[in-house]
Write a structure and sequence with these properties.
By secondary structure, this protein is of the alpha+beta class. The chain contains four helices and six strands, in the order βαβββββααα. It has a three-stranded antiparallel β-sheet. The chain has a three-stranded antiparallel β-sheet with strand order 4-5-6, with no helix packed on it. The longest helix has 36 residues. Keywords: Membrane, Transmembrane, Transmembrane helix.
Length: 193
Amino acid sequence: MTQDLSTPRDDWSQFYEIVIGVWSNQKSCIRALKEYCAYIESPGILNSAGYVQLWISWDNGDVQLGKGPKADGVVVVSHPQIIPYDVNYLAVMTHYTSSWRFYEGCICPSAGVGYQFNTTEELIKRMEEMKKKLKIEREKTNAFIRSKTSVKDSRTSSTGIGFVLGWGIIGSLPVAICLGDAASLLRHMRHGV
């Protein structure tokens, strides 16, 4: 199993990379689209002996990393959203054996439940469960249903064309059958055979 949840990875896609505790736990940075990373001094931001509460936020044109239980704590690194795009996914990568706990502490109406994960596998399992709940079958979407439904058209021109073509097709079938048998009928009538 990969340690990188974004694998297989499209390095040209839109993403922000948040690097925490590099150079022996001394520096951190945020960068967009794999651009140059302007590292900020952040000595001891991670702790190998225990969990550290960190938060990530993207609001008001900035992506931020900070310390504390909520996004109102101390900002460690901030990066302006020069290219504004929505943040829809989270990927976690570590170069060493690590354990992570994720808590959804969003102060928004939809954040009624917090999630904690002790391993990457637990996070992946939870993400798969969420995918199953959120997946919508194509055949049940309004767009698909509309593409298969005809709308009644009560305009005189439409009903007239429908009437003429409908009765024309229905009436032409018996005529075509009779014409196909007309030659045999005439031969029987002339020769009595």
